[in-house]
Amino acid sequence: MSVLKSVITVYNKTSLILRILIGLIIGAVLGLLVPGQEWIGVLGSAFVGALKGIAPVLVFALVISSLANGNSKMDRRFGVVIFLYLITTFLAALVAVCISYVFPQTFTLTTAYQADSVVGGIGEVMENLLLSMVQNPIAAIATGQFIGVLLWAVLIGLAVKKYASQQTKQVIGDISNALTTLVRWIINLAPFGICGLVFSTISETGLDTFTEYGTLVLMLAGCMLFEALFMNPLISFLFLRRNPYPLLFRCLKGSGVTAFFTRSSAANIPVNMELCEKLGLDEDMYSVSIPLGATINMDGAAVTITVLTLATANTLGIHVDFFSAVLMSMLATLGACGASGVAGGSLLLVPMACSMFGIPAEVSMQAVAVGFIIGVIQDSLETALNSSGDVFFTATAEYYSWRKQGKPLPKFLGGTLETEI
């Protein structure tokens, strides 16, 4: 028993990132050496299932608690955050368009991926979005419809704030804290889950994914890195008039790395909120903006939709003029913000964008199939960009408000305020 306790102690003291890297390497090696051991892959399925199961409940409780127990009203900072979320999602799609023109991609058309539902157009996206917002809150939590979860949480939180007793608000706050702790426990087991996920991918496809679709993966990675390292800092600079990279690197290290491996923006919310606390942000602000960002800040999804759509058009020899591509970027922005309300997320929105160019669903779904093949990389990059952006733009909006009020900024932004990081 003492040996087991010692092992657990060493495990917990070791950096989570180092543990995840070790799990990744072990999973890849086992996938190549013993591909038939299905029980290893179950670790990954259990990890993903746990994150998917707890994430909607966490968002629901966090938003209700923050609104019910908050001392300040929503001010213009929330308007700035929402603007930053939306404008950068559009710019991400536009970046993907430009890079796709410079480095056009194609892929081999084979058998279409069979899906339960295909999104046919922007009207259907908006209809799905509206219906997701007003569906039964219990059903929204059970099915992971984050738009609905967020709306009902906001309404219930405002009602609780006005009518509930202080004891009730305290109980809700305690439940929220308990769920946050539970998610941290699940994330602490991420090395085992990552080991199982990588094992399943390598044992099923070997290294074919990296050879056949290597250039497409590099395209997606390049677009997302350009958005993360250039466009997002540029927007932040326009607001802060400070070098944004010290803040950016803190967000990428503290949020992006974890999100890359967990592949869930919602499950990464406790990590983001802890990072916001270290950055000295207002809890009443970030306790709402972070769950909101996990729902509508979808830069990575916009990149995925755009790149796969243009790759499909290139494969079929369809010329897409720049104006049409810009319109598609707007469509991708709206679609990406509603991705959590559509089964299959951003990948199943590709047929919607393809429909702009007359590409039939049976063909565009083959692009979706490619997306699922490279999903272990695509989804990780997408989540890392989205989740780190939640903190980055929440901090940008907060520090912009401080700058306008003449309050001191943190030292890493050239100010005088001491922070924990």
Descriptive terms for the model:
421 residues, 0% strand, single chain, globular, mainly alpha
Task: Walk me through what this model shows.
This protein has helices at 2-13, 16-33, 38-69, 76-102, 122-134, 137-143, 146-163, 166-188, 190-205, 208-212, 214-240, 245-262, 269-278, 283-296, 299-315, 322-337, 350-354, 361-373, 375-405. The chain is an all-alpha fold and 421 residues long. The longest helix is centred in the first third of the chain and has 32 residues, at 38-69. The chain starts with a helix and ends in a 16-residue tail after the last helix.
Q: What profile does the largest beta sheet have? A: none
Report the span from N to C terminus.
37 Å
Radius of gyration: 21 Å
Mean pLDDT: 80
What level of helicity do the residues show? over 70%
- Give unreliable regions as ranges: 111-120
Number of helices: 19
Structural class assignment: mainly alpha
Beta-strand fraction estimate: under 5%
User: Using DSSP, what is the number of strands?
Assistant: 0
Principal-axes geometry comes out as globular
The sequence of SSEs as H and E is: HHHHHHHHHHHHHHHHHHH
